[in-house]
Specification:
The chain folds into 2 domains: 52 residues, no CATH class; 191 residues, 3-Layer(aba) Sandwich (Rossmann fold), CATH 3.40.50. It is built from 11 helices and 9 strands. A hairpin with a 5-residue loop joins strand 8 and strand 9. Helix 2 crosses helix 4 and helix 6 packs parallel to helix 7.
Amino acid sequence: MKTPQELLKNADLDDEYLLRTALGKSRADLLMDFTKPIKLTSIKRFLMLKKLRARGIPMQYIVGEAWFFGLKFKINKNVLIPRPESELMVERALAIAEEHKTCSIIDIGTGSGAIAIALSKNSSCTVSAIDISTKALVVARANARRLKARVKFSKADARKPYKLPKTPHVIITANLPYLSDRRMSRLSAEVKKEPKLALYGGPDGLDLYRVMLRNLFASKKQIIHTLLEIDPEQKTKLATFVRREFPKSELIFYPDLHGDIRLAEITF
């Protein structure tokens, strides 16, 4: 039998994470047992996880979890992996909620539930979330139960009209599929392992957003603050669409930590 010290000789952080997953130990516990022999079954599990990683399976899918906004979410291949860039949407939604106390939040295309749950845990607003995927909703509801978040989940199509709450202000968060044909053709091997349903947004990536915005505007009876995660290349095309179809709306773009435009806020 080998020790962690032997298995991790000249290894990288990925290997350490995989070994901790195979053993079910924290980093502190692993270091405490660094020179203690490991059971053969755990070594076999570690080697199996390494093979999955070598095949390009994203680390988050292998270990079954991902961190988002300081919370640990359980995930699987049925949902998009939560990304740090999407935390910008949560931060902006919380700022709007703080400004308008009587508001409701709807997360459209919730996936793992990361955005909706983060908002529920950090605000007093009523939060609901929808997704077209039954399998994604299973993951989202399980995360909400585990994290003790109050979110009402339901199955719905983002392309169909959605009944809005009667609060004076409604915040819509939407990280819908927004990758264009060009972006899809250039995806990394790892991203290709994520569900296409959660990635592809039509030829220019904005198909779902156009339909959703039109439906929201047609059904609005109050002020709607809509937050959309976008590709930086979509800024001009989205701005042209919004100004043409909703000329009285307010449109603001926000950059992510890399300085790339990542978030669009439309208020109408």
